[in-house]
Amino acid sequence: MKIIKELNMKKILSLFWEQSYSPYFNAKGIAVGVFSGCFPFFGLQTLMGLFIARVIKGNLLLAALGTWVSNPFTYIPLYLLNFRVGSIFFKNNSADFFNKQLIVKDLWNHGWFFTSRLLLGSCLVGIFMGSLIGSLTFYLYKSRSKENINQLYSKK
């Protein structure tokens, strides 16, 4: 219980910055984590991120941290965005789906309609966000490592 009390944002950020691996290795980990976090597989996002990071040889800790892009505060906007993006690639309009009064029977009848669009949108948004965050992470770690090298040489 003491560990949970001492866990705060500063310590989480220090976990992020104290990764002493290559910028590319760290960027792969966080990108895979963000990609996995965009999917609506509650409870499996972290496992998915860890598995993919292991396969592509990325940072496992940063992959787990990257899945936190999906949390109770972002579920509804993220999955609504994913559904809308996925609907762009299908002929039917998603607005008609949301304009109807939804009841449980309709959800079962329209399950594939909803699921296909959500999963396609999750994949596309995940690729975009993962690439963006991964690139940003790469450049942050790259510039940080250059600063460390410059400081090392300036001390001599």
Describe the structure.
It is a single chain. The chain has 156 residues and is mainly alpha-helical. The protein has one domain (2-155). The protein has helices at residues 2-6, 9-17, 23-37, 45-55, 60-66, 75-88, 94-99, 104-109, 111-155. The protein starts with a helix and ends with a helix. The model has no long low-confidence stretch (mean pLDDT 82).
Please describe the structure with a list of short key phrases separated by commas or semicolons.
156 residues, mainly alpha, 9 helices, 76% helix
Summarize the structure.
By secondary structure, this protein is mainly alpha-helical. Helices cover about 75% and strands about 0% of the residues. The protein has one domain.
Unreliably modeled segments: none
Number of domains: 1
Q: Decide which structural class fits the backbone.
A: mainly alpha
Fraction in beta strands: under 5%
Shape: elongated
User: What is the rounded Rg?
Assistant: 19 Å
Order of helices and strands: HHHHHHHHH
Output mean pLDDT. Answer: 82
* CA distance, first residue to last residue: 45 Å
Number of helices: 9
Proportion in helices = over 70%
Give a count of the beta strands, DSSP E runs of length 2 or more.
Answer: 0
The biggest sheet, with number of strands, parallel, antiparallel or mixed sense and barrel status, is: none
